[in-house]
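Input/output pair, single chain:
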Amino acid sequence: MKRTFVLAAVAALLACGTAQAQQIDVKIGVLTDMSSLYADNSGVGSAIAAQMAVADYAKAHPNSKIKASVVSADHQNKADVGTNIANQWIDVDHVDLIADVPNSGVALAIAEVARAKNKVFVASGPASSDLTGPKCSPNTVHWTYDT
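Output:
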């Protein structure tokens, strides 16, 4: 499931118009809980799944001009930690897409960062209906159930 959403996210990024002759570097940030209550459901497994999806894409498209990479971090279930990581990734590390975020409070904060910086956030972990309701954003794809 997570590999499917990462492949879909990469495909969506690639669908944006680009020049044919240039290499396109896509950086995906998996922002997850690696140390607490959501670690078993997502955690390191989400980061590994994203890396596997990128490897599968590269293997299936060996002549592709698209080169994807994955970075990951632990938001520690703290919105301030998550937003600091997201801002660092976007402003300094040039991350194009943030995925996972299995904590609704952190996800709502990341959705605001994504909106403000016009980046993509694929929320595959949180269940807050606010992501598809009052805090809905054109930058956030809520890829899961909601409450």
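Strands lie at 24-32, 66-74, 97-100, 120-123, 140-142. Residues 22-142 form a domain with the Rossmann fold fold (CATH 3.40.50.2300).
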